[in-house]
Structures are given as C-alpha cells and as structure tokens.
Amino acid sequence: xxxxxxxxxxxxxxxxxxxxxxxxxxxxxxxxxxxxxxxxxxxxxxxxxxxxxxxxxxxxxxxxxxxxxxxxxxxxxxxxxxxxxxxxxxxxxxxxxxxxxxxxxxxxxxxxxxxxxxxxxxxxxxxxxxxxxxxxxxxxxxxxxxxxxxxxxxxxxxxxxxxxxxxxxxxxxxxxxxxxxxxxxxxxxxxxxxxxxxxxxxxxxxxxxxxxxxxxxxxxxxxxxxxxxxxxxxxxxxxxxxxxxxxxxxxxxxxxxxxxxxxxxxxxxxxxxxxxxxxxxxxxxxxxxxxxxxxxxxxxxxxxxxxxxxxxxxxxxxxxxxxxxxxxxxxxxxxxxxxxxxxxxxxxxxxxxxxxxxxxxxxxxxxxxxxxxxxxxx
Length: 378
Hints:
Mean pLDDT: 78
Number of domains: 2
Low-confidence stretches: 1-10, 346-378
Shape: globular
Helix content: 55-70%
Structural class: mainly alpha
Order of helices and strands: HHHHHHHHHHHHHH
Number of helices: 14
Largest sheet: none
Strand content: under 5%
Radius of gyration: 22 Å
CATH superfamily of the largest domain: Clc chloride channel
Distance between the termini: 35 Å
C-alpha cells in the first residue's frame, strides 16, 4: 500500500483509494462469507432431504434405483429452467474454469443459485466453487453500490467478495485465496490490486467460522480424512509416490476434460440445450445405478466427491475402486460437457487420494489431513 502511494507514477490520492478499498473489503468479508455459508447450507439440506429423508419416507435405507436415475434428471430440468427463464444463463460453463469476464451482475444471482442447486443437490458430478465465486462477486458489487465505488473499485470489491466466499468453502482464507490467485494468473499485473482487499475480506469473513469472543462461530466443513495416523518424518519413497500420483491424476483429469469439451462442442449440433441437460442427467444417474448393481455405492459416483473420500480410502476391493474411478470419471465428463452449472475444481481430489495400498507412507501409516482449525503439527 505504501509502495502505491510513493510510486512516482501513482495519481494523487492513490494510497487513500487503496486504503478505502481495504477497509470496505474488510466490511464486505462478513456478508460475502455469510451468503456462501447460507448457500452451502441450502445445498446440503436439500441434498440430505432428497437422498436420505425421501428414501426413509418411502421405506428404504438407501435410495432406490428410480431415485438414483431420476433425481439427476430432475436436477437437469431445474438447471435448464434457470438457464432459460432467468438472466445470466445460470452462470459460466464449468469448462471455462474460475477466471471470468468481469464481476457478476446482481441480476444474475437468482439464475446462478437455482442452476447450482439443480446441479449440486440432485447428484451431478461437479463442485460448488464456481457458484460461490459468482455469488461472492455479486455480494461485492452490492457493497460497492452502497459505497458508491467507481467501475474499477467495484471490480476490485467484486473480486474481494469472491475471495471471502471461496474461503468459506475451504475452511480458511489461505487456501481459498491461493486458489483465486491461481485462477487469476492469466490476468497478470491486473490481479495485484485485488490481492490485499481480497485477503482482508477472506480473513474477516473467516471470523464467521472461528467465532469472536464468547461466540463460537459457524461450523465449517474442511476437506479431511478422519482417523488416519500421524505422518512422522519424510521418506523419499513417499515423495516419489506423491509425484507419480500427481502426474497420473493430471493425465486422467486432462483426458476427462478433453472428452467433456468434445461433448460440449458437438452436442448442441444434435440436441437443444434442455435436451442435452436431460440426457446428461439421465446418463449420470444410469452410471451411478450401474455402479450400484456392480457392487459399488451409487452415492460415491454422484456429487462432487469430497464426502466419499473416507469411504474410498477405506475400500479394500480393487474391483470396487476401479468401478468407482471409471464411473466417476465418465460422470464427471458428462456433467462438465452437457450444460450443468457448477465448478470442475473438486474432482481431482477423488482420483489423487486413491493411491496404491502398497505405497502407504513410511512405516505403514498414511498422512493425516489436518483441519484448518487444528494447531500445526509439531
């Protein structure tokens, strides 16, 4: 900030403008994170009702075949309605990644939220990062309007809102902030002015989850695998295995994305957008049910994949693991390319976490993933 103020090329009052953006960003973090928390809670509650309460009400402990196949189709219909009726086309295509064409207009928020609900809660194989970033951007623009910020300042505050919203998903400002930085690398120097307000917004929004004073804060879901032993020491074999897993996961994800691109490119020449979505939802549901018939859990094929990580790592059957990986990969590609609206960022975790059991870390133990709320390992 002082560097901006002391630069010979900086216009008069540049330091004051940056300071104002930082202050407004700090105030923005709480409503942006709250919006993200409310959205995630709605997604989770709707998902729980559809896939747990509804089967229980009809007398089954697990979703029957007609729900496994039918609910993704219903979600596709919801997403199609959001894209057709509401402005904004339900948000960006997940194949376009995180970087957008600018702040998300306020009028797009209902369509983005509805399309994301139809995607995430009904079983499509995508994650919530994209909608959260868009909704955080909407919150930033709303605050910028109240603060009477200019066009450039509004863009910075919109990015700060996205920082705060994505931090709510990852349980802390550091991971979410670095993810946003990675997504905006292509912007070059234009990314720099957004960093300080963005990280301040993410940090202030994180107060909602860690609490303040006697208030304990909201509960947050971190990506974690419970019950694993501590990883003590560093071993060359573990590093080599990690490199191999990373390369293999990158190859698999790249192949899946290439196939999804083919679906997105060639599909519209044969089918309308609603038909593409409905067929995609049907295909995802059928894949999940076929995996169920082959012995896997259909719920591990559907959805983004984080919640199924503990069960996947605990799986001892190579057959089931291969079934899940193939079904998840094909379902992921279909969800990416057929027109659903969410984000493609979460899925590599699913593949990268299933390394060979013969390559467990060190003396037979595997690393324990630390929640962001825990103290650092000594």
